[in-house]
Design goal:
Blueprint (H helix, E strand, L loop, with lengths): L4 H10 L5 E4 L2 E3 L2 E4 L2 H13 L3 E5 L16 H15 L7 E8 L5 E9 L13 E4 L2 E4 L2 H10 L23 H8 L6 H7 L3 E3 L5 E3 L1 H7 L12 E6 L9 E7 L3 H15 L2 E5 L3 E5 L3 H14 L9 E5 L3 E7 L20 H8 L21 H13 L4 E5 L3 E7 L12
Helix pairs in contact: 2-3, 8-9, 9-11
Protein name: Transcriptional regulator
InterPro entries: RecG_C_sf, Schlafen_AlbA_2_dom, Schlafen_AlbA_2_dom_sf
Length: 419
Amino acid sequence: MFDSQEELQRKIFLGEDNSLELKEVRFRGEKVAGPSRSDLADEIAAIANTSGAVLVLGVDDKSREIIGIPIDKLNLVEDYVREITTDVIKPAVTVRVYRMELPDSTGIKRAVIKVDIPRSLFVHKSPGGYFYRHGSSKREMAPDLLARLFQQRSQARVIRFEEQSVPGTESRTLKPDLLERFIQGIEGDQETTLLKRNLLTKDEDGIIRASVAGLLMCSDHPEEYLPGAFIEAVSYRGVDQDSNYQVDSKRIFGPLDHQIQDAIIFFKRNNYISAKKVPERIDYPRFSDIAVFEAIVNAIAHRDYSISGSKIRFFIFSDRLEIYSPGALPNTLTIEGLAFRQVTRNELITKLLSECTIDEPGVPGRKHFMEKRGEGVPLIIKESKKLSKIEPKYALIDNSELLLTIYAASEPEISIDDE
């Protein structure tokens, strides 16, 4: 929005409205003195809760005079904005930050920061409460409006969350080589095909956007639009989650099928194997490759992507492995019924993963990530118990996160004859 210098200048000349917010930036030494964190957070959240707009920092909102930001303080202001959108507003707001030069009234070019704030998939709370934008001002939401907005932007909508449009995206947000996997052999107009497959969709204004599923499967960085759409993997020496004993860690980004493969690579790198000779060498892995593969696929395929900023956490300890997957159990599924019932939260994502072939590393006899046979949880239980003699444990934390614990196999006993 307002991408060219001329277009932005013209808009500033006309003044604030539903699509434009102007703020002068004041400094006290090496700190931003104004606007305050709370005030700026309220403005940004109000815009994200409404229809999206552009915030320009470095312009007086009353006189519309371009004051500018000192070049040596641009990093400071940009960090200030990112801190507010990430830490002060809940859930975090995804924005795009650009540096531009605009001429002041004397013709001298001044640096400003332009912040594109798209309409959000979520409802955001800032320090002052829940706000929406009305014209050039923000207003606190009345209870009935807030309830309506939550309903519109929640999974309770008729449209599944994975099929909703992602604000700020467009068809070219999705990578052609990743899209090709899902449209091979299909004749006709590509855009029409992608719309039929729900990889693209139309927003409320009829503009074509990437769908949530399309973004997750066909972009290199879905977390730029859906904070938390990645895996946090950490391996520890010992049994405690203590950074002093951290031996390996990785944030795993990318399309969902790539995340699965990279998580398996991380796992194999940290699945220490014991061995002994009796008389030939026998390896004793701590965890089952098959069980862990199924567990990671299940976490990726069935997590709740509507929970902003909540990531999959994958922890490896010496005595166990833990996978935390965001979201409560879907529909009427219970912990006790996990091994016996098949209920899918993300039908489209599951379907797309079933079309993705597995590259190495994989599981013998498995060609696709999802095979829709409902065998995932039974396999996890069977293969893990066979190795460690302990049944894996599922637990629901605060009705908002599913924890799977897989226990490690015991170290083999080494007798004198084995040495």
